[in-house]
Amino acid sequence: MANIVRVGSPTPSHDDHDNHPHGKKHLWGGIVIGILTVFLVASLYYLFKKKLLPSLRRKPQLSLMNKKGTLKDEKNMLRRFQLEEVVKATKNFSQECLLGSGAFGNVYKGTFDVEVTLAIKRPHNESYQSAEEFMNEVRLLSRVKHRNLVSLVGFCEEPGAKGSKILVYEYVPNGSLLEYITGKRGSSLNWRQRANIAIGAAKGIAHLHEGIIPSIIHRDIKPSNILVGDGFEAKVSDFGLVKCGPTGDQSHVSSQVKGTPGYLDPAYCSSFHLTPFSDVYSFGIILLQLISARPAIELAKLNSNYHIIEWARPGLERGKVEDILDVSLLSEPCNMKMMLKMGQLGLRCVVNTPKLRPTMTQVWQELQEALYLAENFIHKQPSWDSRKSVDYEYSQSSFVSINGVGFQRFHVEMESPSFQSTVLRCLENNSISHVVSEKTSLKGTFCEIGRT
């Protein structure tokens, strides 16, 4: 008897039952592969657009070269900018982009591709005597790498003796310490911010002295050259006057006197012997300014060049830091012991004999230890020194009461009489040189020094 098979309705076989679960596995596998493919494509697109494309748009980075033209150090990679790039970024060096100016040149804010902001330093034509002098400075600055030092990003060098020679630095957004000391920023620093700025700046200078071989001496430490970054982190800037320090058995290097009045080391001015302790002296002045918010030289008094050291020393030697304290610190809790430590350390930095001054490493270590003690014991004792007999009353207004006597708070602007003289203008704008007497009275012979 013949077998009858119904056409179009095949009887399921054992193979069909076995393949059904595998079909589901293939379906899920296809979904997973599809998701991974979409994710991979999206990642490649982001990487290309955000990372690779900007890099391709930029000019190739060039390593610094030695005199023979060979690569000097693969770690010292700097970008070589074209003049057209810099002109575009600064809107043809417009006043709108001008950040500051000085004897050496002008500094502009430059905005490049992908919203990268950099600081463009355009020296005056006479700032460099030759292209080799410019490249020597680039080589020197390429070694400066520290979180508390403004980094050199690149340079622009046009051919010819009169070709543009431009330095490109990282951009620091919050202005300089000078602007906070003078009240130009519209807000004052609290005691902790002042201490942190002092510690950061000291670490940066210490790196120049001890973290680089051969060492580097800044020669122009002053408030306008200490920039304030994010989180009020200090960054030392403006390396236009830097010089290599002593090497081997050398105790000093002989150098023509350069710097800014009020911050120049008297020992350096009288002997022409430059050492890292010259920077220590300048930093001591900054410590005094951080707690008092006064200019280095007070010319408001008739017939007197009144230096901040002469003014601050009596109170600090008596342990009465409140006698010289910035009045803005009296309107809120302030750790007097930390301020006193900063002031007394400042006096140690400006002693007449350079070898008796602390090193910059000792300075930041002492400041950091004092801040640690202040922050860890601040809740166990009053922020104000309880040994003082002065009675302080605080308010959020512009008036402060001390021992029942009312004082009004003022911001010192650069247009005030103290800052109208050409000498004090150099605190913000330029670097000129003067000889200072051993007693730091600034009544000695003044001499203007050129750039060499």
From TrEMBL:
Region of interest (Disordered), residue spans: 1-21
TM helices/strands, residue ranges: 27-48
Domain Protein kinase as annotated: residue spans: 93-371
Membrane topology value: Single-pass membrane protein
Catalytic function, reaction form: L-seryl-[protein] + ATP = O-phospho-L-seryl-[protein] + ADP + H(+); L-threonyl-[protein] + ATP = O-phospho-L-threonyl-[protein] + ADP + H(+)
InterPro entries in the cross-refs: Kinase-like_dom_sf, PERK1-13-like, Prot_kinase_dom, Protein_kinase_ATP_BS, Ser-Thr/Tyr_kinase_cat_dom, Ser/Thr_kinase_AS
Chain positions recorded as ATP binding sites: K121
Classification via PROSITE patterns: PROTEIN_KINASE_ATP (PS00107), PROTEIN_KINASE_DOM (PS50011), PROTEIN_KINASE_ST (PS00108)
Keyword rRNA processing: no
Keywords: ATP-binding, Cell membrane, Kinase, Membrane, Nucleotide-binding, Serine/threonine-protein kinase, Transferase, Transmembrane, Transmembrane helix
GO molecular function: ATP binding; protein serine/threonine kinase activity
Family to which this protein belongs: Belongs to the protein kinase superfamily.
Protein name per Swiss-Prot or TrEMBL: non-specific serine/threonine protein kinase
Source organism of the structure: Ficus carica
